Amino acid sequence: MTRRAAIIAFSLVVAVGLLGLRSWDVALGRIQRVVVGAIEERTGIVVGAVERAEIALLPLPRISLSQVGFSRRDGALSGEAVRVRAHLRLLPLLSGRISFDRVDLIAPQIDIVIPAASEGVSEWLAAPLAALERLRSQSKIVISAGSVFLRADGAIRSTVRDLDLVIDERGPGEPLALAGSLNWRGVPTEVSLLWPMAGGSTKAALSATSSLLKLRFEGTRAGPGEPMISGPLALSTPSLTGLLGWFSTQSRLASALGALTLSADIQVKPREVSFNNAVVSLDGDRLDGVVKLAQADGRFALSGTLAGAKLDLGRLVDRLPIPAVDAADPSPLDLDAWTAHDIDLRVSVDAARLEGARLTDVAIYLLVKKGRFETGLIRAGAYGGSLKSRLLASAAPAGVDVKLQAGLDKVNIGQAASDLPQLARLSGIGSLQLVLDGAGRSFDALIGSLTGKVNLALRQGELSGIALGELLRRAERNPAQALRDWRHGKTPFETLTANAGIANGLLVLTEAQMSGQNYRFNLTGSASLSTRILDMAASLSSPNGTPKLPFLLRGPLDAPVFDIAADALLSPAGASPIPLTR
């Protein structure tokens, strides 16, 4: 080639390059119509208004549409984008055909219509996934800096912002694959999805990562003849309450759970998810079993059976927003908030902690229906004895009907005192039976209506902080010295019994006695459950009844005053009281 020919060829290459690098305005004519039709065919999106169209050949051929309005023919989706860019395939273009393998939506604002009665993310995604399923094939779709508005009856139900998503190209029968990031309700989240579009048993996968959730699922999705998803699932959250709130679900009972991890083999059917071979970790306490979550008539229903080595029940109870039992609080009892979801859950563990107490071989249950809340200890070992309890609250014409039953049998109080400081002054083998029943619209009405009974029995124990036997001997020798330095020492007893009846919120002792080798201590009186004020009197005497030393037990339940009646020391029957001085 001569020098002249080389210069001409080089000039032609430069000219072609300059032309290819330049974006050319294209009239809204044949090329644009062909491109718009191809976009609709390959994405299912109908392009409406277009402000401007441009074509560039280098470095790769592409067509850009500015200020584009788009929608679906069924009206389920609409929106607009600052720019829609279609990347053309080179070989078809050389043969005179327009075909492309990628569509970019730049800063789109997308409106998706959801059913007014939809109740969750799965129902919100149903329509978009169904629309993609109807496409036999689809180009690669890249969404950058997008926003999605979910609307029901014209009102925005939820918004997704900062949407950066890549939906991979797929051919006939191939699965939908997407990955990217988004910001939903203020929480940035990374997501990826592999969703089968054909019948038969096909691989499906989902992962989501945010500050509230780490989720990973890899399994299969059955075809239309048997719509079921199954496979292993792993989920963790630092706060179950925060996670449920992210999905606009509130549950007072769920607030008992803090950090949660779950792994299971799941089966997902319409409105039902089964968790088989489930491993649940609650703040590090592991439970194994099966759980099912279903939805019917607008209510979630949770059921399951779990077992483990240990569980801190006290920590779970402390997190519950249980209102203080205060008769001065006129607020109505809110049973509906505690029975918003159906629950049938049974848990058994080898060991448990409950407000400091150590329990063994524990079985608990929780049954919740609309307007009915029931929970209790089916069984529990406690310091050589056993413990049972049952709490039932149900809606009633008078407000909330509450029934409480609790029982201790052959519990070693001395051993329990090592874990429960409030029992530090008492020892012995004890049994307790408590039955309460009442109804009301507020705590004041409920407590004022309580009826029931309490029976307490201890044997072979000791009461510290007072030496009743020694006090009695001192009173016999010198009554005037009986009041001095009597608040120390120990009182061993053979039996301690207390029986009380409860009516209209007032507890009345029918029998209360503590007996030792050389003394008898009797207690009478009452206690108001509403005001929690004690008004009781006691007497200390020798087995033959003389002398008698009077006591008073009065004041608030949490800090009562227990003292000798300083105005008199009762002498044997028939004698005059002997004044005492300190």
What percent of the residues sit in helical stretches (DSSP H or I)?
10-25%
Number of strands: 29
Structural class estimated from helices and strands: alpha+beta
Question: How many separate domains?
Answer: 4
Distance between the termini: 133 Å
Q: Return residue spans where pLDDT drops below 50 for at least 5 consecutive residues.
A: 5-28, 570-582
What percent strand?
Answer: over 45%
Radius of gyration: 38 Å
The general outline is elongated
Number of helices: 10
Mean pLDDT score: 83
Structure characterization notes:
The protein has helices at 3-21, 30-43, 90-94, 121-133, 240-246, 313-319, 335-338, 413-417, 443-448, 468-477; strands at 24-25, 46-56, 62-71, 77-88, 100-113, 140-152, 155-167, 176-184, 187-195, 202-209, 214-221, 229-237, 260-269, 272-282, 285-296, 299-312, 342-354, 357-369, 372-382, 385-396, 399-412, 426-440, 451-464, 490-503, 506-515, 520-528, 533-541, 548-556, 561-564. The protein has 582 residues and is of the alpha+beta class. It folds into four domains: 19-167, no CATH class; 181-231, no CATH class; 238-397, no CATH class; 450-564, no CATH class. Strand 5 (100-113), helix 4 and strand 6 form a beta-alpha-beta unit. The protein starts with a helix and ends in an 18-residue tail after the last strand.
List keywords for this structure.
alpha+beta, 582 residues, single chain, 29-stranded mixed sheet, disordered C terminus, 4 domains, elongated, 29 strands
Question: What's the gist of this structure?
Answer:
This protein is α+β, with helices and mostly antiparallel strands and 582 residues long. The chain has ten helices and 29 strands. β19 and β20 (385-396) form a beta hairpin.
